[in-house]
Amino acid sequence: MILIGITIIVLGLFLLPLAWRGRISARGQFCRKCKFDLAGSPIQAECDKCPECGESVSTQSARRTTLRRSSRIGLVASHILLLLGSGTLGFGIWGNTASIYAHLPDAIVVQGVKWGSTSALDEAVKRSANSPRFVNGYSDDLVDYALKVQADRSVAWDPRIGEILRIALVGGYLNPDQLNLYAINGWTHTLDLRDKVHAGEKFIQYMLASEGDRIGATGHAVTQFRYGARLIEYGVQGEEPVWRIDPKRRLGGKLYIGGENGSRGWMGSSLWNMDQYTTKIKVGDSIPIYIDLEIRLEDPDIEEPIVSKITRLERSVLVLDPSEPIVRQISNDEQAKHIAEAISVGPLHTMVNPTPPGPNHYNIIMKLSAMIDVIPASFSFKIYLQIGGEEVHIGELVREGPDEDPRGQYVQWGVSPNDSAGLEHALALHAIALEQGTIDVVFKTEPDAALKIPTIDQVVDTTIVFKDVPIKIVETPSEVNNPGWNENQVLGELVTD
User: Fold this and answer.
1) pLDDT digit string (tens) for 21-48?
2) Cα–Cα distance between 88 and 4 in angstroms, integer?
3) Which of 74, 177, 280, 373 is deepest in the core (most CB within 10 A)?
4) Are residues 67 and 109 in the same domain?
5) The dihedral formed by the CA atoms of 141, 147, 153 and 157, expressed in degrees to the nearest 10
6) How far apart are alpha carbons 309 and 90 in whole angstroms?
7) DSSP H or E segment with residue 278
8) Whole domain around residue 17: which residue ranges?
9) Is the predicted pLDDT of residue 340 greater than 70, yes or no?
10) Are residues 198 and 299 in the same domain?
11) Residue 359 lies in a domain
């Protein structure tokens, strides 16, 4: 509102001198002092004077050739603009603009939104929610403006803009062109592909992240739409595709529009059947890989997707000798110390007689929770339980860091019920552990465990021992599977040479 007030005042000030000067009403020779018409009067000699006021008119500087008349309409309009602008500026400064916009017509509210008025935007959100108060034409104009803001990534996202789009989407007010813009500009899709592979390797790891960074709204809604970005084809440039999905295959769950942070999703896996290329190409050469990513918006009531945009990404993957590591292991004593201090584990949950929670489910022998605080660098651990003189591998713990938020992870020791020998041995070790009452848990750095996260190129060499982690006996498989977080987390000790 302040900006609008200033704009109106500037317009009034611009119009005022123009209106005061007015338009030309007569042409000829006139006395400059009293504007008397000198037509027919002598004006050449030095002694010639104005018949009206007696002022000398012998020189051109003493005369004027035109007369102007001020514009009364212009003067009135300029004063009205100055008064309106001053009032608007005053209301803007005093914070009463919301009450003003509440009584203004739709057209002015929409224009106020375009001028950057936060009060106008608040009022526009209210009117959008209270449709049909908004006239359709102005609603379309408002949605078009919101989509324009959504597409301009140089402008910080305002959840109120997202709310206008959410209301329009849920209400079915977006036309096909608007739906297309909403789907293309509302999300950021990032594909990370590991750029190194061993000769003869069958898989190349990737991670696809989709973030609805420009759909966040002030409200929440589960829509009838499905939205997603997925790999639909990949291969080597100039070759037939290695892998392709059915283009008619539907997406999964419904599109959820959350609060200010929008929505996020990650999908990690591997490009597979690549060994035909990683085997025949020479070590040191690059494989030119292409990946087709489809951005897709579906309506369950319509057979064909509403939006389907294919984006081709091209990457080069270097082929390494199998003896050369893809993820390097580095030594850094200070970072290793910080990593050890950032990790704690909870009690190991188990039953006296571990049983699977249902048919064909794994026997979960034990399960523990690990809490990871802020870390200075990437790590990649394999986790072992020390029982009866053996080290039992139970899982992995990998973090990219240092930008990741603190969070936890469960790690479980499970055995397939179809592996009778393995299950028998696990139960024997389990009995020893119950008799001990505590177990030492060891985190050992294993670079290959980080291969599944393609953005990790190196990990810190660290070994951490959590001594005497208590065993908590529970009654049901569900309690084992959901151990919860324990306030009495066990801290580890950094193992140094």
Assistant:
1) 777 777 788 888 887 887 878 877 777 8
2) 7
3) 74
4) no
5) 90
6) 49
7) helix 275-280
8) 2-97
9) yes
10) yes
11) yes
**Does residue 263 share a domain with residue 339?**
no
User: Residue 269 has which token pair?
Assistant: 């896996």
- The answer to whether 170 touches 223, Cβ cutoff 8 Å, is yes
For the CA atoms of 118, 121, 126, 131, the dihedral, rounded to the nearest 10 degrees, stands at: 170
50 and 137 assigned to the same domain: no
| Closest by Cα among 383, 374, 377 to 449 | 383
| Residue 325 CB coordination number (10 Å) | 13
Task: Give 301's contacts (C-beta < 8 A, 6+ positions apart).
Answer: 224
Antiparallel, parallel or unpaired: β 196-198 and 307-320: parallel
Check if the beta carbon of residue 198 is closer than 8 Å to that of residue 278: yes
- Total domains in the fold of the chain: 4
Long-range Cβ contacts of 150-155 (<8 Å, 24+ apart): 150/181, 150/182, 150/185, 150/186, 150/214, 150/215, 151/181, 151/185, 153/214
Determine which helix (DSSP H) or strand (DSSP E) holds 435, and give its type and residue range. helix 420-436
Give yes or no for a contact between 110 and 19, defined as CB atoms under 8 angstroms apart. no
Residues 165-199 pLDDT 10s: 999 999 888 999 999 999 999 999 999 999 999 99
DSSP string over 161-226: HHHHHHHHHHTT---HHHHHHHHHHS-EEEEEE-SEEETT---EEEEEEEE-TTT--SS-EE-S-E
Burial classification of residue 227, based on how many CB atoms lie within 10 Å of its CB (0-12 exposed, 13-18 middle, 19 or more buried): buried
Q: Which of 295, 306, 318, 47 is nearest to 175 (CA)?
A: 306
CA-based angle 487:491:494, to the nearest 5?
165
**pTM metric for this prediction:** 0.71
Say if residues 388 and 432 touch (Cβ distance below 8 Å). Answer: yes
241 shares its domain with 333: no
Closest CA to 429 of 411, 447, 415: 415
Within a domain: 173: no
Same-domain pairing of 280 and 350? no
* Rounded (10°) CA dihedral 45, 50, 54, 56: -40
- Are 404 and 377 in contact by the 8 Å Cβ rule? The answer is no
The vertex-495 CA angle with 492 and 497, nearest 5°, equals: 170
- Domain limit, last residue, from 320, 336, 359: 320
Which residue in the block uniquely carries the two structure tokens 């986790």? Answer: 383
Four-point Cα dihedral 272, 457, 187, 265, nearest 10: 70
203 touches 242 (CB < 8 A):
no
Reduce the DSSP state of residue 436 to 3 states and report it: helix
